[in-house]
Amino acid sequence: MKSLSTRTLRTRLGAGLVAGATCLSLAACTSNDPEQASDSGGGTSEAEAGSNDEAGDEVVIGFSAPAADHGWMAAITNAARAEADKYEDVELRVADGTNDVNLQISQVETFINEGVDAIVLLPFDGAAMTRTALKAMEAGIPVINVDREFNDPNAARATVLGDNYGMGVSAGSYVCEQADGNENAVVAEIAGIDSLPLTQDRSQGFEDALSECGLDVDNRVAADFTVEGGERAASNLLQAAPEIDYLWNHDDDQGVGVMAAIQNAGRDEFVMVGGAGSANAMREIQSGDSVLKATVVYPSTQGADGIKLARLVVQDKALGDLVEVSVPRTIQLYAPVVTEENVDEFLPSAFES
């Protein structure tokens, strides 16, 4: 695929910045410790009269997400629980996490039959869950779609998304900044699962951003978002590439394995950039003693934002910082770069790999 023009790239970047600004009123500082997160303030117990956080009619929300088989996904559900705990007018019913599409369909149908007020759904497979989400919407139950989109926009009242293309752009822009005009720099990439659109978007954003400073990806391998897969892919890459200046790894969970492979190989000549924004990656950055110098955030607050949006939709409220009187159809979160300079700002809301 050809790289985008400078004008197109800047347009996409601008759109991402606007989307990031839009969701500032949503984003809650969340933690993998629900008790800690619930003590962070806000919610109905401290709300001013007339504010969006003031207690209203009870809202029963059904929540379903894939199995918490790695840190980011576990943080999604934990953050959703913590956000619901802040509101005395929210009853959250959480289905067991599952990677079985048929079971997730059954879970959502149970919520429909129970007559919940809203459903927050991070689908294991967006396309496969579309028909069931449409069924909920047709029953008058608003669906908040999180992270993985349905293939019919009518299947959700609102959608909360990370920015996979923007992650790639942020990572590539950071590499360009570090390379500082050196067009001979050797750049490597460890992707996630290549068949997934999210991986393709991340790689395309990375490629497009690198092209702005005359760089391209010299060595690329794909992993599978697991520690074992990351170590295996990184080992293969390091054997194939005797010289690397910059390495971007798409996912900090698989990055645990990537870091193990780097240490086993005794390689330290390059700058590494992570992806997703895990707490252990941020601590590596904070130490200053690692090849890992930055990570690009893919917010694990999306489930929490979904809970907050569901409550606002059911109570017929809008976002407090917008003039618009209804909740927007789509909110896309920003993908900032975390470095040693700003890591203290992001570490409290990071997830554990």
Automatic annotation (TrEMBL):
Annotated Periplasmic binding protein domain ranges read 61-317
| InterPro entries assigned | Peripla_BP_I (IPR028082), SBP_2_dom (IPR025997)
Q: Does the keyword Transferase apply?
A: no
Is Signal there in the keyword field? Answer: yes
Query: Any idea which UniProt keywords this protein has?
Result: Signal
* Gene Ontology molecular function: carbohydrate binding
Q: Where in the cell is it found?
A: Cell envelope
Name the segments for region: Disordered. Answer: 31-54
Taxonomically, which superkingdom?
Bacteria
Gene3D superfamilies the UniProt entry points to: 3.40.50.2300
Q: Which positions make up the signal peptide?
A: 1-27
* GO cellular component labels: cell envelope
- Major site of localization recorded for this protein: other
Pfam families, per database record: Peripla_BP_4
Q: Which PANTHER family match?
A: D-ALLOSE-BINDING PERIPLASMIC PROTEIN-RELATED (PTHR46847:SF1)
Similarity comment: family membership: Belongs to the bacterial solute-binding protein 2 family.
Instruction: Please identify the protein, giving its name as recorded.
Output: Substrate-binding domain-containing protein
